[in-house]
């Protein structure tokens, strides 16, 4: 089962087991709609009501969740966002045990918010981390990559948004896609130098703004001089890796 919480400046939505509940503000309260049924609740904000319902679901031991998704839209005003996130954090702090799910999806969260939430998920239990953000809020992932939850996950999907991280902190994943603020010749060298360490790695993709393909490609072939893309086969410790490079992405997969 999937539990999804979306909070924006104008409304909140909670989806559980494909059933969506919508929370909208009205004067002195909120209107809660699920299917054809609507209820007016006084003196409660739409964010507060949705978080309370979210709390009930993750506190219920009979609810077996496969994935949890949390999105706090970047249009939420700063003070409101602080209050909303603190309320959400208290929900996790009140839980007697860590959350056992196979996938964690966090959207439009600041790096510090991710850093505070991930420890409440059981390390080694969830296989997939999905992160996304608005491009105006670059995700600094260096501290997050030190968490056990990060180190023990198998798949990372961070294709939507912009992130910064030392790329060597990605190679424990079996599969990853990440959108970076930049990609350099030095990054290309790091990948080549670490190929022999990639025991469990299978497939990786770096997405980045337009860059100099010649500098990046020459790390793998010093004779490369021209072209919109490059394709190389690399053999390390009897393992074959296929490298594809363009001016906007770098893909590597085990052959």
Automatic annotation (TrEMBL):
This is DUF38 domain-containing protein. It comes from Caenorhabditis elegans. Pfam families: FTH. Residues 83-222 form the DUF38 domain.
């Amino acid at each position: 089962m999937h539990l999804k919480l979306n909070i924006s400046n104008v409304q909140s939505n909670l989806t559980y087991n494909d059933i969506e509940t919508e929370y909208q503000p009205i004067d002195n309260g909120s209107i809660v709609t699920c299917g054809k049924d609507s209820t007016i609740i006084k003196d409660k904000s739409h964010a507060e009501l949705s978080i309370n319902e979210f709390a009930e679901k993750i506190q219920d031991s009979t609810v077996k969740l496969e994935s949890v998704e949390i999105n706090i839209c970047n249009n939420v005003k700063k003070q409101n966002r602080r209050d909303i996130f603190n309320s959400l954090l208290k929900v996790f702090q009140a839980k007697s045990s860590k959350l056992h799910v196979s996938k964690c999806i966090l959207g439009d969260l600041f790096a510090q918010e991710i850093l505070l939430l991930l420890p409440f998920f059981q390390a080694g239990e969830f296989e997939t981390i999905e992160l996304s953000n608005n491009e105006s809020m670059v995700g600094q992932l260096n501290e997050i990559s030190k968490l056990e939850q990060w180190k023990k996950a198998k798949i990372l999907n961070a294709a939507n948004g912009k992130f910064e991280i030392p790329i060597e902190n990605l190679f424990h994943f079996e599969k990853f896609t990440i959108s970076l603020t930049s990609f350099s010749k030095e990054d290309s060298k790091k990948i080549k130098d670490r190929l022999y360490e990639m025991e469990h790695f299978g497939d990786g993709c770096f997405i980045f703004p337009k860059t100099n393909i010649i500098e990046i490609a020459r790390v793998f072939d010093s004779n490369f001089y021209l072209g919109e893309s490059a394709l190389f086969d690399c053999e390390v410790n009897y393992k074959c890796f296929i490298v594809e490079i363009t001016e906007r992405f770098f893909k590597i997969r085990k052959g």
